[in-house]
From TrEMBL:
Recorded superkingdom: Bacteria
Organism: Pseudonocardia dioxanivorans (strain ATCC 55486 / DSM 44775 / JCM 13855 / CB1190)
SUPFAM superfamilies found in the cross-reference section: Homeodomain-like (SSF46689)
Lineage: Bacteria, Bacillati, Actinomycetota, Actinomycetes, Pseudonocardiales
UniProt name for this protein: Regulatory protein TetR
Pfam families found in the cross-reference section: TetR_N
Length: 229
């Protein structure tokens, strides 16, 4: 690899690290590409545009830096789930609550591992939360439904465990967004022992996923479905 290539790769890495630190502090929506370039010590004020084209390209590159680790952790947990005693459980049947709890852990724990990575992990977590809490959530950069993605596999394993109405009302997406926001908030807390937080968040996510769809919710759902469009 040539010296110029080495320097270019180093510049790109420094830009991503600067973005992670600034996003961790202020959120991914409040930081300009020029600020990232300055924080990275780039000599060219448009260095971020050169390497990533635009903000979306930089955000995608930041997400991709962490994706392999998240995917490996979650797939390993899903492998263990499928090999375990609750893989054949169905909604309302024996072992369903335990199965939902195990899958809630597979959602939470790979993300929560980023809490131990300092500013890079915090920047990643806040970026994910920012994308999911936009007025129209931006899920494409996160590849939630990409074939082979751990989240797509997670969603499929949850399907037989949830009531049909819960699936129709996007209960799985609500859990994903809830967990992302809570973990991103935790990253800003300055605390370093996350064991109780993670365990409690798994419990809360399992409760959200497995909560019974009430008669009132069913009624309102039917009203919406039958209303003229």
């Amino acid at each position: 690899m040539s010296r110029a290539t080495d320097e270019g790769a180093d510049t790109r890495t420094r830009l991503l690290r600067a973005a992670e630190e600034l996003f961790a502090e202020r959120g991914s929506e409040a930081v300009s590409l020029r600020e990232i370039g300055r924080a990275a010590g780039a000599r060219n004020v448009i260095a971020a545009q050169y390497w990533f084209t635009d903000r979306d390209g930089l955000v995608q590159a930041l997400l991709d830096r962490h994706l392999a680790d998240i995917e490996q952790r979650r797939h390993a947990m899903l492998d263990a789930f499928e090999a375990g005693p609750h893989a054949a459980a169905v909604a309302g049947g024996p072992g369903a609550d335990e199965a939902v709890h195990a899958l809630a852990a597979a959602l939470v724990e790979p993300l929560a591992a980023k809490l131990d990575e300092g500013a890079p992990g915090a920047g990643y977590l806040r970026t994910v939360a920012d994308l999911l809490t936009r007025p129209v959530p931006s899920t494409a950069p996160l590849a939630l439904d990409r074939p082979g993605a751990s989240t797509a596999r997670w969603r499929a394993l949850l399907e037989p465990l949830l009531e049909p109405e819960a699936l129709e009302l996007h209960r799985r997406f609500l859990a994903i967004r809830f967990v992302a926001v809570e973990v991103a908030q935790r990253a800003r807390s300055g605390r370093d022992d996350h064991r109780l937080f993670v365990s409690q968040l798994v419990d809360a996510a399992a409760g959200l996923l497995g909560a019974t769809v009430s008669a009132r919710t069913r009624e309102l759902r039917e009203q919406r479905r039958s209303a003229p469009r």
